[in-house]
């Protein structure tokens, strides 16, 4: 019951934090959509400018994840689709075959400019909306296209002038990633200490799903950089984003090596190997060092203390593990130490030398 209660508490905390972090972008999107409608209706005089808020929501809605490229693709896609739909339906009217023509032309226009699948799909959907929901009359020709341009432009303007913090998602995702890595290392230590393959198997199943955390971290860092491109006020964060970006590759490798480590730890237990007594405390010490790196990376602090902690672990790694699988565990420990040192900013050759030169029996 306590375990279930703990999981529910963690789930509630994750949802609460997600809502808190998304509150400002959601308010932005809602207010901008209303402003786009008001601008198209009261300034441009369009009677029912529903494409203005639609385009604005599409642009800002996708920028909740702060992906500039996707936002621009959606803005262009909806503009192309509405423009093609307005132009073609004005000439040939609306109906089933007219919709087929409109969709084909919208897709061909998108392909002509060598765009991505997101833009193509949005162009086709927007063209269908024009051809079915509100067939244009001569008095309203191209007003929807203008509304679309207004909404898309306003959405991009809001994303540039009032962007979300580019570090928020990057810090959150690196914290999640390093927490999973630390849990895997401490779980492997617990499994080896108790010689319980079932415990190791549970740890293995969990670390096998960690690629999602790696991908989320990589995406968040790239998205943060995109914000600094369009928002001059956020460019001061580029230094920390550069440090996080430099850590993405090494942390990916560290997690991959941890998967191998846990798998071989399970094999050692299953095969009844005698694992060197020093392996378990080294695993726990490395988990603690990962925890320190997590706090410093997610908090924007200097990484000197984390680097020293990892180097201290390197000095404690034994030369052998006691058997074939246990030996692989030790080799993976050295690899993870190398990856973590690279994540702190150390050159890979230097990190590899540090992980090898300081080991002892």
Automatic annotation (TrEMBL):
Top-level taxon: Bacteria
Transmembrane segments: 21-44, 50-68, 75-97, 103-133, 145-162
Location (main, coarse): membrane
Record's subcellular location: Membrane
Membrane topology listed for this record: Multi-pass membrane protein
Start and end residues of each Integral membrane bound transporter domain: 39-158
InterPro entries assigned: Memb_transporter_dom
Annotated signal peptide: none
Coiled-coil region: none
Keywords associated with the record: Membrane, Transmembrane, Transmembrane helix
Pfam families with a match to the protein in the record: FUSC_2
Full protein name: Aromatic acid exporter family protein
Taxonomic source organism: Actinomycetospora atypica
